[in-house]
């Protein structure tokens, strides 16, 4: 009889632990889902902005990997089409730099060794100066590039 009682009690305990574990993992799943939904909402908001900005052309996402170093950006020249959604993945490889494109309201610091994403919609045509916005040494004033929006 004692053995049967032990089996029943331990079975009950195992069942309880199982239930708790399952409930917890469900909660975790819910938490995972919430931020994902928020991201999707943010992206769809962006899509709406792009459509409003570019009624004729829906625009493509153009992604560029860039390097910032004393005293240049590589590539030096970026060419996109008006309406494109542009994404720069920029890594500063020597000292801290920054990237500024005045006309697009961009001014982002680039700490060493981190890849920083800079995104904007190229809704204005023309040639725009891209420059370093963090003093990085004697050549800082000539550390420039160009964004051409056709
Ligand atoms: Cu600089």
Task: Write the SSE topology.
Layout: H1 2-53, E1 61-69, E2 72-74, E3 77-80, E4 85-92, E5 97-101, E6 106-110, E7 115-121, E8 126-131, E9 144-149
Parallel strand pairs: 1-4, 3-9
Antiparallel strand pairs: 1-2, 4-7, 5-6, 8-9
The structure holds copper (II) ion.
Protein model, in words:
Helices cover 35% and strands 35% of the residues. Residues 13-23, 25-44 and 48-55 have low confidence and may be disordered. It contains one helix and nine strands, in the order H-E-E-E-E-E-E-E-E-E. The chain has two domains: 1-53; 61-149, Cupredoxins -  blue copper proteins (Immunoglobulin-like, Sandwich), CATH 2.60.40. The longest helix has 52 residues, at 2-53. By secondary structure, the protein is of the alpha/beta class. Strand 1 (61-69) and strand 2 form a beta hairpin.
What can be said about the biggest beta sheet? 4 strands, mixed
- Which class of secondary structure composition applies to the elements? alpha/beta
Shape, principal axes of CA atoms: globular
Span from first to last CA? 87 Å
Can you summarize this structure?
With 150 residues, the chain is an alpha/beta fold. The chain has one helix and nine strands; from the N terminus they run αβββββββββ.
Features:
about 150 residues; alpha/beta; Immunoglobulin-like; 2 domains; 1 helix; 9 strands; binds copper (II) ion
């Amino acid at each position: 009889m004692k053995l049967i009682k032990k089996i029943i009690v331990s079975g009950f305990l195992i069942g309880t632990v199982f239930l708790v574990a399952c409930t917890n993992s469900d909660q975790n799943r819910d938490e995972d889902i919430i931020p994902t939904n928020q991201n999707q909402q943010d992206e769809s908001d962006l899509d709406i902005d792009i459509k409003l900005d570019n009624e004729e052309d829906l625009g493509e996402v153009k992604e560029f990997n860039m390097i910032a170093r004393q005293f240049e950006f590589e590539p030096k020249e970026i060419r996109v089409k008006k309406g494109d959604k542009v994404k720069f993945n920029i890594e500063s490889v020597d000292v801290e730099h920054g990237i500024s494109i005045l006309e697009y309201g961009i001014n982002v610091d680039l700490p060493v060794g981190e890849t920083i994403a800079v995104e904007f919609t190229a809704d204005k045509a023309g040639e725009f100066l891209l420059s370093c916005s963090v003093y990085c040494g004697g050549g800082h004033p000539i550390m420039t590039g160009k964004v051409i929006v056709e």
